Amino acid sequence: MSTPFYVSPQQAMADRAEYARKGIARGRSLVVLQYADGIVFVGENPSRALHKFSEIYDRIGFAAAGKYNEYENLRIGGVRYADLRGYTYDRDDVTARGLANVYAQTLGTIFSSAAEKPYEVELVVAEVGETPEGDQIYRLPHDGSIVDEHGSVAVGGNAETISSYLDQRHQDGMSLAEALKLAVQALSRDTNGSEREIPAERLEVAVLDRTRPQKRKFKRIVGRQLGRLLEVGGASTEAESSDDADGSEEK
């Protein structure tokens, strides 16, 4: 009778974490940023049928990187949780924090279970408040931990490089066009430092807009509206560069 092969629990968890990280890294990155009137979701997505961003409830949005079938199951579960809680209690009782806790328990249970492989997904749950100070953004890695983010967050394949770029340039009170332009610039950067162009038709963009009069704040930005915002953001960036150049000449 042969002796069973032994793997320490620490090594088994490390192997599962590495497996999940490699799966997530194969997916395209996405970013979530705060701007003056809400929260914007931006990602490179050539598919018009398989969305990375979705509405969960009135003020809550969902973003995910990784395997589509796995994070779609989580999205559907989140919608069911939100609908049931809002119907049973009150719509105000459905919060991003509560939803993030539910996702954390689910991901943590799957990650620690030896009976199934870990999910190759990384989630972002965001809720827009009445004011910018009330905005909430939570990042949930594959292991079920919760990270409370502020200002901007990136997940997916090139997240470290993009996060570093955003941390240096994101500012409070940015307009939607400015935030969108910054997000596209960040997504265009490769790990080797080079840049590439991402056409508008390959972008998926959505917002949680606190200024919308209806209860549901989630809205997708497509077509001409997206094109106009990209043009406005580009024009404002060029104007700022021109102002900086004039100031340096005066000195």
From TrEMBL:
<keyword id="KW-0378">Hydrolase</keyword>
<dbReference type="GO" id="GO:0016787">
    <property type="term" value="F:hydrolase activity"/>
</dbReference>
<keyword id="KW-0963">Cytoplasm</keyword>
<protein>
    <recommendedName>
        <fullName>Proteasome subunit alpha</fullName>
    </recommendedName>
</protein>
<keyword id="KW-0647">Proteasome</keyword>
<feature type="region of interest" description="Disordered">
    <location>
        <begin position="232"/>
        <end position="251"/>
    </location>
</feature>
<dbReference type="InterPro" id="IPR023332">
    <property type="entry name" value="Proteasome_alpha-type"/>
</dbReference>
<feature type="compositionally biased region" description="Acidic residues">
    <location>
        <begin position="240"/>
        <end position="251"/>
    </location>
</feature>
<dbReference type="InterPro" id="IPR001353">
    <property type="entry name" value="Proteasome_sua/b"/>
</dbReference>
<dbReference type="InterPro" id="IPR029055">
    <property type="entry name" value="Ntn_hydrolases_N"/>
</dbReference>
<comment type="subunit">
    <text>The 20S proteasome core is composed of 14 alpha and 14 beta subunits that assemble into four stacked heptameric rings, resulting in a barrel-shaped structure. The two inner rings, each composed of seven catalytic beta subunits, are sandwiched by two outer rings, each composed of seven alpha subunits. The catalytic chamber with the active sites is on the inside of the barrel. Has a gated structure, the ends of the cylinder being occluded by the N-termini of the alpha-subunits. Is capped by the proteasome-associated ATPase, ARC.</text>
</comment>
<dbReference type="GO" id="GO:0000502">
    <property type="term" value="C:proteasome complex"/>
</dbReference>
<dbReference type="Pfam" id="PF00227">
    <property type="entry name" value="Proteasome"/>
</dbReference>
<dbReference type="InterPro" id="IPR022296">
    <property type="entry name" value="Proteasome_asu_bac"/>
</dbReference>
<dbReference type="InterPro" id="IPR050115">
    <property type="entry name" value="Proteasome_alpha"/>
</dbReference>
<comment type="similarity">
    <text>Belongs to the peptidase T1A family.</text>
</comment>
<comment type="pathway">
    <text>Protein degradation; proteasomal Pup-dependent pathway.</text>
</comment>
<comment type="function">
    <text>Component of the proteasome core, a large protease complex with broad specificity involved in protein degradation.</text>
</comment>
